[in-house]
Fold this protein.
Amino acid sequence: MKQDTIYIVGAVALGLAAIAYAALPASDNPTAPQALSGEKGSPIVQVVLPSALSPEAQMGQRAFDAVCAACHGNAAAGREGMGPPFIHPIYKPDHHGDMAFEMAVAQGVRAHHWPFGNMPPQKGLTGSDVRNIIAYVRELQHANGVE
């Protein structure tokens, strides 16, 4: 019963987030990621790399590169036709909190913001791996004005 409640609350939160995102104006932030156009597999946004990463984010980068980058691109820039960028306002911490990333890894995600199809659960990642990946993504987001 408790797990069902978590799923329902998560689904409602994601639905509200989608509505809120649709109502957001375009960003005037000069450090916001710039959209790229390209062929399948090419980066979706240009990402500015931070000058340094915390030790947790460094471990997260290794895990991200091993498991996530195939779809979400190097430095979370996304890949045309394959997976969305995390360096995007829709993934701001107040819009998609850390728990949304944890749930996505554990349970997968039905397509709802992007036309890439469903994301399957990701096997082989520990809770520590996921927290480090989140640290990496959040540090990338911060360096790119996605806060």
Remarks:
- Confidence is low (pLDDT under 50) at residues 9-32.
